[in-house]
């Protein structure tokens, strides 16, 4: 009897719990099927407000000379300006520089005019000497910057990185508004490297004051300055009221939440608690592209590149025919369909919107199993590889 009575009590508790759960579920409102807040209809941008952002990953650091991950770069680009930037068509435009560089006839000398009136977040005016010092910091071997290879053509860099010289002879500041670069050889890509965040000037006195903590306490010259950072939780930025462009930025404050799960973040987006939805799932993408959200959705290509890398120094990928077989065996279109059109197969290294992309490329990569099998025959593997190859992704 005790045993039966005990089970009855447990059953009663379970039943009560289920009833309570049913009541709670019935009280939960459905997620909005349209934006919670809609624009006020202004034809021109309006200043003020707080932009709520989020990201799945954590921000690793805020040092423009050392960071190379996408998430850190989002914040760095808010706090730092590089010498140049890119417009919506991915064309180079002046930022810290006041005009495009003057390039010598032999292509080995560049003169970059520095904009007047640019101030660091500590209030000090930026000069060309800050640009020289920042490049030497970024290119110093002790920092081991991932951006250093992009500037390999600078005169005197090899001796500097070998610690045989105290300075880089190919970098100079003839005056406060002139930055001069000498190259060992003409390099058409070099000017575009000046638009990367590695070319962002930093305040020497601030870097020397905080030392290794520069990764956490950056002092830039961009449109926003860091107010607080609780690592792994959130960052708060506020508008730089001394920014050299008085028309920008429009937003007063940015709250950037880290390590927020994608599904949770999208529910908060639908509820109006965050303002941006990035890298949404295929299912969430369908919500945005239909119903009440559709009139507010704008789709455009982003110049990102994703692909598989093969170690060509190891068998079987040291054989060009095996590599070609792999390229022909990947069904990119099916992959895109599985992502609800969220990605677009490029069939080549350069994606759309990047200079050099060719929609009519004759040797564009495409899915062709017959060609893949033919390439395996040419590689000496008509029946395929004897042992499977594991792909880590």
How would you describe the overall organization of this protein?
The structure is a single chain. The protein is of the alpha+beta class and 393 residues long. Helices cover 27% and strands 12% of the residues. The chain has helices spanning 2-27, 70-79, 128-139, 157-161, 190-193, 204-210, 262-270, 282-288, 320-329, 332-338, 369-378, and strands spanning 50-54, 84-86, 92-94, 102-103, 109-113, 171-175, 178-182, 224-230, 234-239, 253-257. A hairpin with a 5-residue loop joins strand 4 (102-103) and strand 5 (109-113). Helix 9 runs antiparallel to helix 11 (369-378). Residues 1-12 have low confidence and may be disordered.
Strand order of the largest sheet: 1-10-9-8
- Note the total helix count: 11
Number of strands: 10
Tertiary shape: globular
Order of helices and strands: HEHEEEEHHEEHHEEEHHHHH
Gyration radius over CA: 27 Å
Mean pLDDT reading? 88
Give the terminus-to-terminus CA distance.
59 Å
The computed structural class is: alpha+beta
Helix content range of the residues, please?
25-40%
Strand content: 5-15%
What does the largest sheet look like? 4 strands, mixed
